[in-house]
Specification:
Pfam families: UDG. The protein is of the alpha/beta class. It contains eleven helices and four strands. Helix 1 (16-24) packs antiparallel against helix 6.
C-alpha cells in the first residue's frame, strides 16, 4: 500500500514548480527547528521534478556533494543508482520524466563517525504532501532506504532487508503508481549487496524493465 498521503492530496494541487520554489526558500530546520539542534549550515534544498514526471525516486537526503553542487546524486552513489536503473545522466536528470524527492531536502550534516545524519524530521511532514500532489502522472515510485520506505509503505517488521526482499508482493499490490523498495546505493551497503545476491540477480532486471516502461510512458 502506498502512503496515505496519496489518498489525502487536494483536488487542486499547487504546481510542482511553485511548491519546489517555496521549499528552496525554507529555513525551518535552521531557524525554527522542531527536533533537536538547528541545522549547522545554510540549508540548500535539493529536489527535482515536474508535473509530467513518470518516475519518482524517493530517497533519503542529499549528501555533502549534492549539497555543494545543488544536483541530486552527484556522487558515486548516483553512479551506482543510475547503473541499477539503466539510465544515463541525461535521462536521470530529465525533470520532465524523473522526480527526485528526498525525505529530507537538505544535507543533514555528518555524525561523529563521518556518516550522514538522518533526514531532518521537519521536512517530510511540512513539504512532502504538497510536492507529491504536484506529480499527478507518476507511474513508478522507487523507495530508497528505510526512511522513504517507512513513509511510503508504512512501518514493516524486519527492517530494510525484509522490506526489499518482499519487493514482488509490494510491486504486485501497488495501484498506480507502482512501488519498488531498494537499498541505498551507498558504498556503505557493499556488504549488504554481497550477502544478498538475489538483489542483483532477481530484482535489478525487473527494476530496469519497470523504469524503462515508466520513462517511455508505457504503463497507462
Amino acid at each position: 500500500m502506498i502512503h496515505p498521503t496519496f489518498e489525502m492530496m487536494p483536488a487542486h494541487a499547487e504546481p510542482f514548480e511553485a511548491t519546489a520554489a517555496r521549499l528552496r526558500a525554507c529555513r525551518l530546520c535552521r531557524d525554527a527547528p522542531l527536533f533537536g539542534a538547528p541545522l549547522p549550515h545554510e540549508p540548500r534544498p535539493v529536489v527535482q521534478g515536474s508535473a509530467t514526471a513518470r518516475l519518482l525516486i524517493a530517497s533519503q537526503a542529499p549528501g555533502n556533494r549534492a549539497h555543494r553542487s545543488g544536483i541530486p546524486f552527484s556522487d558515486p552513489s548516483g553512479r551506482r543508482l543510475r547503473a541499477w536503473l539503466g539510465l544515463d545522466e541525461a535521462a536521470f536528470y530529465d525533470s520532465g520524466r524523473v522526480a527526485i524527492l528526498p525525505m529530507g531536502a537538505c544535507f543533514p550534516g555528518l555524525d561523529a563517525k563521518g556518516g550522514d545524519r538522518p533526514p531532518r524530521r521537519e521536512c517530510a511532514p511540512t513539504w512532502r504532501a504538497d510536492l507529491l500532489a504536484g506529480l499527478p502522472r507518476l507511474d513508478l515510485i522507487l523507495v530508497i532506504g528505510q526512511y522513504a520506505q517507512a513513509w511510503h509503505l508504512g512501518p514493516r517488521p524486519g527492517g530494510l532487508t525484509e522490506t526489499v526482499a518482499r519487493w514482488r508482493a509490494i510491486l504486485a499490490a501497488s495501484a498506480r503508481p507502482r512501488v519498488l523498495p531498494l537499498p541505498h546505493p551507498s558504498w556503505r551497503n557493499n556488504g549488504w549487496l554481497r550477502t544478498n545476491p538475489w538483489f542483483e540477480a532477481e530484482l535489478l532486471p525487473v527494476l530496469r524493465a519497470e523504469v524503462a516502461a515508466a520513462m517511455a510512458g508505457e504503463t497507462e
